[in-house]
Every structure is written in C-alpha cells, then in structure tokens.
Amino acid sequence: MTNVTQNRPLSPHLTVWRPTITYVMSIVHRITGVALYAGTLLVAVWLVAAASGQENFDWVNGLFGSFLGRLVLIGYTWALMHHMLGGLRHFVWDTGHGLGKYVSRKFGWLTLAGSLTLTVLIWIAGYAMRF
Predict the structure, then answer these.
(1) CA-based angle 78:79:80, to the nearest 5?
(2) Which of 2, 31, 71, 88 has its CA 20 to 30 A from that of 41?
(3) Percentages helix, strand, coil for the chain, rounded to the nearest 5?
(4) Given phi > 0 = left and psi -120 to 50 = alpha, else beta, which region is 98?
C-alpha cells in the first residue's frame, strides 16, 4: 500500500499569494467585527458609569477624553464605519452584483476610503457640536 499523502499536490502556501484589496478587506472586515465587540464593552462601561453617579461618569469621561482614550474611540468609530460599509459590500455581492474582478477591487478601495472619510466627518461633526 502506497502512502497517498506523498502523491497529492500541496496547496499553495500564503507566501505564494499576493495580497489583493479584496482579500485584505475581507480579513479587515473580520478584525473590525471583533473590535466592535470590545468597543461595545466600552459603550457599556460608559452607560454604567452614567447610571452610577456623577463621580464615576466624570472619571470615565476623563478616561475617554484622554489622548489614548480618544485614539481608542477614533479606532472604534473607524471599525464601525468600515464594518458597516463592508457589510453593505457583502449585501451587494449577495444580490449577485459586483462580483467581477475590477468591480470587487473598486468596492474594496471604496470601503477603505469611505470608512476613513466617514470617520473624519463624524469626528469633525462631534467637535463642531461641542461649541
């Protein structure tokens, strides 16, 4: 009896594949989904602090208002926008549209550009509403 595994062709390793925008956006979509779970915990912490008194609320607001806190909140905003646009991209694909090579690449770049643009616009609007 011969060893069947020695005669099978091997699957290409990751080093063979050149990253394309479509598969990078697919991976980032999954990562942003996980990040949204963590970010939602931050929203829950903020709500619990708001419900538990002014001192706790001020402490959490101070934490979120720090440089690191704002960086995390900007990242959360971007993850939310990117995941939303990636979900819309997948919704369009589910209808059978946009599956061509060039159109799917454009969708990938539009998802990235759109998420960055929306994040900047949301934060500009947020700062504008403070004054």
Answers:
(1) 90
(2) 88
(3) 80, 0, 20
(4) left
**Amino acid identity, position 11:** S
Q: Which three-class secondary structure state does DSSP give residue 90?
A: helix
The domains found in the chain, sorted by start residue, are 20-130 (1.20.1300.10)
Walk along the chain (131 residues) and give the pLDDT tens digit of each residue.
556 566 666 666 666 778 899 989 999 999 999 999 999 999 999 999 999 999 999 999 999 999 999 999 999 999 999 999 999 999 999 999 989 989 999 999 999 999 999 999 999 999 999 87
Intra-chain end-to-end CA distance of the chain, in Å:
80
Contact 82, 29 (CB under 8 A): yes
Task: Tell me how far apart the alpha carbons of residues 45 and 64 are, in angstroms, rounded to a whole number.
Answer: 11
- Report helix, strand or coil for 35: helix
